[in-house]
Write a structure and sequence with these properties.
The protein has a domain of 30 residues. The N and C termini lie far apart (32 Å). Helices cover 8% and strands 31% of the residues.
Length: 64
């Protein structure tokens, strides 16, 4: 069993790690990766407000 914060694709080397970018939206900072269809996927939320992490639409994996 392997416990890691990295996606399985990165650990196994199946594909190149996604290119990430820092994005500010609604006064919050997100680390996002670009998808092939032009959308962005949230990889990480950076906020000092604990309630922000409970918002379902700001959780990692959601598309912007």
């Amino acid at each position: 069993m392997l416990w890691t914060i990295y996606p399985l694709e990165v650990v196994l080397g199946a594909e190149d790690p996604p290119q990430t970018q820092e994005l500010s939206r609604n006064g919050r900072t997100f680390i996002v990766s670009h998808l092939s269809d032009g959308q962005r996927r949230i990889e990480r939320l950076i906020s000092s407000e604990p309630a922000d992490y409970l918002r379902p639409h700001w959780q990692p994996g959601n598309r912007i």
